[in-house]
Fold this protein.
Amino acid sequence: MSEDPYSVLGVGRDATDAEIKRQYRKLARQHHPDRNPDDAAAEEMFKSIQAAYDKVGTKDARSRYDESKRMEDFFQNNPRNRNSNFSGFEVPDIFSQMFGGSRQQRNKNPSREKKGPDRGSDIRSGIDLEYSEAETGGRIEFDHQRLRLCPSCKGSSFATTRTCGACNGRGVRSRRSTIIVKIPPESKHGQKIRMKGLGHDHPVGVAGDLILTIRIDAKEGRRWESGRLIQSVCVPYSMLILGGKCSVKTPSGSSIRIEVEPGTQIGDRRRIPNMSYGGDDLDIEFTLKESEEITETQREILKRLRMEGL
Ligand SMILES: [Zn+2]
């Protein structure tokens, strides 16, 4: 079982493409062999990060990965669909899945046959927005790829012995196009937009739908977690122990001062009302401020602290 690229990169499944890129750059820098000579663990980590980025680092790769993951989940959750040849991503007949099951399969189980016309599969994808775009709404271009009816046979060669050279008898062909998506004003991260008939075409039936999930860019130092925005706040070690005040720049653009209680631990969180996008609550998470360089005085004090057992 390969590692989940999202957890390797430390981002949510709902992260925007830009967030994935930023996080990858940060981790790659951190674990780069040049920076960690003779460190086998860092090298392993660096390789995992690269592999994870290969899977979800570009729009195309990510949508392929997400799609195969959905297929995998589908098979795991439907033991009836599992067959002995199936392992992981090797879906035996991806087209029958895209068409929601072939005719032959369904005719074997007439009692289970669904009512209504044959239907192409739905397509699920994400659309990345800046907060301002989600707030005002508007029309956004989306690069879309889906199965369209074959222009040569108009789908008539599907499930027949007649071979259509253009589509190999599938009745459909993969096509790319740019579509315009209408974003409603005050859209939220995670909100879904269903576009009827923009999923995969079915050679002899109706097209599925396109279901887009809105992903709002969390920006540097923030991330989404189950629909909540988490903002990291870097605090020096002495402030974690002794307490103090630090300022936080919120997503809404304002600067606020917050009290850090003595004995705060790395990872402790606090909820601040109305300071996230759209007036939602913001969760801040305390993390240790990294010091790139320390002065001679600081080094001396740290040595003394070490002698004191801290
Ligand atoms: Zn054709």
